[in-house]
What does this fold into?
Amino acid sequence: MFLEYFQFLGLTPEATFPEIRQAYLGLVRRYPPELFPNKFQRLK
It folds into this structure.
């Protein structure tokens, strides 16, 4: 299950915190909660 998070973000498990944060914020911008509530729930 832990590896699914990295796969969802498109990262490897060796990713640094800034890389994880950047990938997460990029997905939040791409799938805002107002337009994609189900997708956003998966991001959280």
User: Anything to note?
Assistant: The two ends are 14 Å apart (CA to CA). The chain has a mean pLDDT of 87. The chain has three helices and no strands. Residues 16 and 22 are 10 Å apart (CA to CA).
